[in-house]
Write a structure and sequence with these properties.
alpha/beta; FAD/NAD(P)-binding domain; Methane Monooxygenase Hydroxylase, Chain G, domain 1; five-stranded parallel beta sheet; 24 strands
Length: 505
């Protein structure tokens, strides 16, 4: 299926720009701000500009200010990533981190300080304190400040509640895009498209991700012919607090500041599984929690901060403290219940070191991109760093490029059928399949079954077309789920976040 829906470009409203950026997280906003102001930028966001994973980021940005720690940051990233990382990409991340963080500070981002100097904390997998932060709402601070600067730029035009349907191509080059604005399709004329659309966490029943994280950009890139890689590597965060069907993230920085994981008996169990104990890489902590749950026959795992100095937790982690109190848990006196949830995608749209894909004029950065930085398992707080560093690199490449005229084609299909009214229950079915098969502990038997079940859904909706955003999103979810399962089946040995249990086959 080359296109997600039908369209007649001769009849569509037209928006012209030099650069289209899809996504308003840190990667999309930072890319936009570093595009030359002589170029017209259209930045589209699926809902409002603040609804994205970057805004939800609590912990901070992993950045090395001391050159003596460059190799340490590189080594920690490689170790967490099961040495599957692209070493050159990791070096770029570490070595270019500081100059991009300094740009954030110029834009007004206010990181926590001690005696006038930026404060650093430590998170899982890091052997040094190299995470800069704003209490426990670093993402909120960054995104709000970047939006303020974006809105002051005359060359950047933001479109909220706008859904990317497809990237148009001609002779393996970007030739525009189709988007839905206010339930109406439009043609965006451009030769440069940047997909900064985030991750895929909402393919699972429980996820720390924003509601928009359904892999739309990855699906659109796949239909356009871009190379997609490493989709099997889905990271599950070990310590969300589950309530009313939602997973509220309890930042890894809590363990970085001394939080201790305990099982139902009160045992601090992580020492049994890794030398770094509670600060082991995320994939190891998540699997360890599952093993403890299996041993004790229930899901009762807790994060203990009751030993923190009086007043420290609520001051350092005000958002987390407020949430816990709202759920009738007082972290000062009782343990916080936690359970792993889908969190981050290490794979995605394959790019080079400048965010370029195999399609001329198509770029990707942030969680949607597979730069090679994260390997098989992301090191804590390297995600915001990656969005900054590679967003800036994408902008630099585009600034050196020139705009060409487009040549637009139309695809006409009949908008259809009664099946459009059925898809909401099938969304739950799809998420259940992913929860049961593409989870922390996998088997080839379950993955094979999932492949067949997802293919059945794919066939059911193959020739069904609609302009409804939610339905288009669902069709993207089917594509992305299929990519995850297919790539998981192709990787026959455990690696990082792709962990296979003993199988009968």
């Amino acid at each position: 299926m080359r296109y997600l829906t039908s369209f007649n470009t001769d009849l569509l409203e037209i928006i012209e720009c030099d650069v289209l950026i899809v996504g308003s997280g840190i990667a999309g906003l930072f890319t936009a701000l570093n595009i030359d102001d002589s170029l017209k930028v259209c930045l589209i966001s699926k809902t409002d500009l603040k609804t994205n994973n970057s805004y939800l980021a609590q912990g901070g940005i992993a950045v090395t200010f001391n050159k003596k720690d460059f190799q340490g940051h590189i080594d920690d990233t490689l170790k967490a990533g099961a040495f599957y990382n692209d070493l050159t990409a990791v070096r770029i991340l570490v070595e270019e981190g500081r100059k991009n963080v300094e740009k954030l500070i110029e834009y007004g981002v206010d990181f926590d300080k001690i005696d006038g100097e930026i404060s650093f904390t430590r998170e899982g997998g890091h052997l040094e304190r190299r995470i800069i932060h704003k209490k426990d709402y670093t993402g909120k601070e960054i995104i709000e400040k970047l939006i303020q600067v974006v809105e002051q730029r005359d060359n950047i035009h933001c479109y909220e509640d706008t859904f990317l349907v497809d990237v148009l191509t001609c002779d393996n080059s970007v030739d525009g895009a189709i988007a839905v604005i206010n339930d109406k399709e439009c043609l965006i004329k451009t030769n440069h498209a940047v997909l900064a659309t985030g991750g895929v966490g909402r393919l699972f029943l429980n996820s720390t991700n924003s509601s928009i994280s359904t892999g739309d950009g990855i699906a659109a890139a796949y239909r356009a012919g871009a190379v997609i890689e490493d989709m099997e590597f889905v990271q599950f965060h070990p310590t969300p607090f589950h309530s009313n069907g939602e997973a509220f993230l309890i930042s890894e920085a809590v363990r970085g500041e001394g939080g201790i994981l305990r099982n139902d008996s009160g045992e601090a169990f992580m020492g049994k599984y890794h030398s770094l104990k509670d600060l082991a890489p995320r994939d190891i902590v998540s699997r360890s929690i599952l093993k403890e749950q299996q041993l004790q026959g229930n899901k009762n795992i807790y994060l203990d901060v009751t030993h923190f100095e009086e007043g420290y937790f609520e001051k350092r982690f005000p958002s987390i403290f407020s949430y816990c109190i709202s759920q009738n848990v007082d972290p000062r006196k009782e343990w916080i219940p936690v359970n792993p949830s889908a969190h981050y995608l290490m794979g995605g749209i394959k790019t080079d070191l400048f965010g370029r894909t195999n399609i001329e004029g198509l770029y990707s950065c942030g969680e949607a991109a597979r730069t090679g930085v994260q390997g098989a398992n992301r090191l804590a707080s390297n995600s915001l760093s990656e969005g900054l560093v590679f967003g800036n690199r994408v902008a630099n490449v585009i600034n050196e490029s020139k705009k060409n005229d487009g040549n637009y084609v139309s695809v006409i299909n009949e908008e259809s059928s009664e099946l459009v009214t059925e898809y909401k229950k099938d969304i739950v079915i799809l998420k259940t399949i992913m929860d049961e098969t593409a989870n922390i502990l996998r088997t080839r038997k379950k993955l094979s079954s999932a492949k067949d079940r997802i293919r059945t859904l794919e066939k059911k909706y193959e020739d069904v077309y609609s302009y409804k955003k939610e339905f288009l999103e669902f069709k993207n979810m089917i594509i992305v789920a299929s990519l995850i399962i297919d790539m998981a089946l192709k990787r026959k040995k455990s690696l990082g976040s792709h962990y296979l249990e003993n199988d009968d086959e």
